[in-house]
Design brief:
The chain is an alpha+beta fold. The chain has two helices and five strands; from the N terminus they run E-E-H-E-H-E-E.
Length: 89
């Protein structure tokens, strides 16, 4: 299964892992539900990737704000070779 992004963080004395598959329908159809893990309903988000430059994330957030989109949280990371990736929920 091709994953576009993986994000993990602590949550209420446990861990939460967010997976962004390239094909959500195929991911769900494949029955990926490991034992002892709670799988939540799919969430809506934005995955942005591009050239790493000053203001790249600010420009994206300004466009979303102008469209009156609200977000719960976001994360932006450099990926090396002059590229970045950002997840927004």
């Amino acid at each position: 299964m091709n994953l576009l992004a993986v994000h993990a963080f602590p949550s209420a004395r446990r861990s939460q892992i967010d997976l962004v598959p390239s094909d959500a329908a195929a991911f769900l159809a494949a029955g990926h539900k490991p034992r002892n893990l709670k799988v939540s309903k799919p969430k809506t988000g934005v995955l942005d990737r591009g050239d790493d430059r000053v203001g790249a994330m600010a420009q994206l957030l300004a466009r979303l704000g102008a469209a009156r989109n609200q977000r719960d949280r976001d994360e932006c990371n450099p990926h090396g070779h002059g590229r970045y990736g950002a997840l927004l929920w």
